[in-house]
Automatic annotation (TrEMBL):
Domain annotation Glycosyl transferase family: ranges: 330-511
Signal sequence segment: 1-25
UniProt name for this protein: Glycosyl transferase family 25 domain-containing protein
Family: Belongs to the glycosyltransferase 25 family.
Top-rank lineage group of the source organism: Eukaryota
InterPro entries given in the database record: Collagen_mod_GT25 (IPR050757), Glyco_trans_25 (IPR002654), Nucleotide-diphossugar_trans (IPR029044)
Keyword terms, alphabetized: Glycosyltransferase, Signal, Transferase
Organism: Meganyctiphanes norvegica
GO molecular function: procollagen galactosyltransferase activity
Length: 600
């Protein structure tokens, strides 16, 4: 096919036309004022989230003189109003206007309320009244948008308003990250108007499909375009909606049906990570659970951001960090490469939030290893080993990873630690991590005769045949697995792994462990080691996961994405028995007997 080439003068004209219009549009954008926004903040018993919420709200990259505030608070049993008073006093002058009513005289509970998290009919009616007032206030003051914003929404993206307004939707919400499969939108609505899970929900939630999607419900953080004529008919009051029967006394359901009745579609947008929101607390639960979910959200935010910000003004209201302990373990290790200080910093911040006293253990860096050094240690790849997927030899990164864990096992034996937990530095914590670990340990001690190792984070294979430990809720008999993200190991377990003399017949550490508990599918590999009597189990569900998976944006592997070993390290594992020294053999033997050198 002949290639078309435009004449030079035509190309110049197109270039100048594009440049002129780009400059013209940019110029006019600078002259056009930003849309006006009424921000609706309704707070009750949110003293634990307000310092973070208000700090991130302050940091929004949007002209404050184009924003008005509508703030209400009542029926509190904490310092919600005190925090709001401090913040409003210092900040209200920055905004176009502030309509604030903080009711200190209201009772701490509604008349029929059994707990602060219960949604009774009087509470729903009061919420409907406040949201309806805010909507009418926006109309009366000719604002362009009303933004309903819950006080436990953490707006981590300061450009959220600019990004969303550009989408030009009638009612729209940023998709907020949360715990498990919760978010601030519904994928479907049942015939009785309550929540219905649909096939479209998860792809949007997991951002497998990106864009703005029409959905039947958005809540907790959404904007309403009041410049559209149909918006005059929007309402939160079920009594004002026709065409539907038996509408529940629920503000968000009524608003969604109101929008549907006048053809104003709701959209959720997931092109970016805009912020976070904890799941709601069920009515039969206590407010204390909301505090723990805040901790889980803060841990999740540390995956993407260096910190959860809080202003100096509000810092005094943040919950105190828990005292550090070892969760009942003899010791806790964090394996981390010295050239990864960012990972160490994130993990140390996580440990502070969790109240964990963890030793930083400098990992062996595969990039610094060379053949002569490894041969001096007696490190040789197993003759029969080839990576199951790529059929390659080991990498120096995988050897460094193995040695890092190996030296931890040596330290366990040397110090006579009874039970320890080992963390790698590229992990994220599931909600209620501490509570789950304590429960897992309780089950292990009560329901198993003996145990050597418990996976806390790993890659379970799809075809794994794993049975529950009899009577257990969170413990299974583990099958062949990948990864060593986090595990609990005993003194005896570490001793068994050392006694296998793995350095001279090395495979990746996540292949070695299944070999030693005799669940590896490669019989030839297993034949290199005897006995294979490591008693291993796994948490189920797992309580630790990787930050990112292979193929995801930002994923980096310091083990697999490193240089392959030289042929000399895979030449012959028979050399191992000639180079292992007497000291190493003595250490292993002492470990098996449960003794240290000093005790001997």
């Amino acid at each position: 096919m002949a290639q078309f080439t435009a004449p030079l003068h035509v190309m110049r004209f197109v270039f100048l036309f594009v440049c002129y219009n780009t400059i013209r549009c940019s110029f006019h954008q600078d002259l056009i004022k930003h849309p006006t926004i009424l921000v609706v903040i309704l707070a009750r018993n949110k003293a634990h989230t307000l310092p973070y919420f208000l700090t991130m709200f302050e940091q929004l990259n949007y002209p404050k003189d184009r924003m008005s505030l509508f703030i209400r608070s009542d029926h509190n049993q904490d310092k919600t109003i005190t925090i709001l008073e401090d913040w409003v006093l210092l900040n209200q002058h920055k905004y176009h206007s502030a309509n604030v009513r903080l009711d200190k005289k209201s009772e701490v509970a509604y008349s029929t309320e059994k707990s602060p998290v219960e949604w009774t009919e009087p509470r729903f009616k009061h919420m409907i009244k406040l949201k309806e007032q805010a909507l009418n206030h926006g109309r009366k003051n000719w604002v362009d948008y009303v933004w309903y914003l819950d006080c436990d929404v953490f707006l981590s993206n300061p450009n959220i308003l600019r990004l969303l307004i550009m989408e030009d939707k009638p009612i729209f919400a940023p998709m907020l990250k949360s715990l498990a499969t919760y978010s601030n939108f519904w994928g479907g609505m049942a015939e009785d108007y309550w929540y219905k899970r649909t096939d479209e929900y998860i792809p949007i939630l997991e951002r497998k499909e990106k864009g703005c999607f029409a959905v039947p419900m958005v809540h907790s953080c959404f904007l309403v375009d009041l410049t559209r004529q149909a918006s005059d008919l929007l309402t939160f009051n079920p009594q004002n909606i026709s065409g539907f029967e038996d509408i529940p006394e629920d503000d968000i359901i009524a608003f969604a049906l109101s929008a549907a009745s006048i053809g104003m579609d709701m959209y959720v947008c997931n092109m970016d990570i805009y912020g976070y929101i904890p799941p709601p607390v069920d009515e039969d639960q206590q407010l204390e659970l909301d505090f723990r979910q805040l901790l889980s959200i803060k841990l999740e935010m540390l995956v993407e951001y260096p910190e959860v910000p809080v202003s100096p003004l509000l810092e005094k209201y943040t919950p105190a960090l828990p005292a550090k302990d070892k969760m009942g373990f003899s010791h806790q290790y964090l394996i981390n490469l010295n050239r990864r200080p960012d990972r160490r910093e994130r993990m140390e911040k996580s440990f502070k939030l969790l109240g964990l006293d963890v030793e930083h253990w400098s990992a062996v860096d595969g990039k610094l290893l060379n053949d002569s050094y490894l041969q001096g240690l007696g490190v040789f790849q197993m003759d029969a080993y080839k990576d199951p997927w790529s059929k390659r030899d080991m990498t120096y990164g995988e050897i460094g990873c193995f040695l890092s864990h190996y030296y931890v096992w040596e330290d366990i034996v040397k110090n006579g630690y009874k039970e320890v937990i080992v963390f790698e530095d590229d992990i994220r914590f599931e909600p209620y991590f501490r509570e789950k670990i304590i429960y897992i340990m309780k089950e292990a001690k009560e329901l198993t005769d003996e145990w050597d190792l418990i996976y806390v984070g790993r890659k379970k294979l799809k075809n794994a045949d794993e049975t529950w430990v009899e009577g257990a809720d969170m413990l299974v008999n583990v099958d062949y697995s990948y990864w060593t993200l986090c595990y609990i190991i005993t003194h005896r377990g570490a001793s068994k792994l050392l006694a296998g003399k793995p350095l001279g017949r090395m495979v990746p550490v996540d292949e070695y462990l299944p070999i030693m508990f005799d669940k590896h599918p490669e019989d030839e590999w297993k034949s290199y080691f005897s006995p294979r009597d490591l008693k291993a189990f796994s948490a189920s569900p797992l309580v630790v996961f990787p930050i990112r998976y292979t193929g995801e944006e930002g994923h980096i592997s310091d083990t697999e994405e490193s240089e392959l070993i030289d042929e000399t390290l895979g030449a012959s594992s028979e050399l191992f028995d000639e180079v292992v020294d007497a000291k190493g053999a003595m250490d292993i033997e002492l470990g098996l007997n449960g003794l240290t050198k000093d005790e001997l």
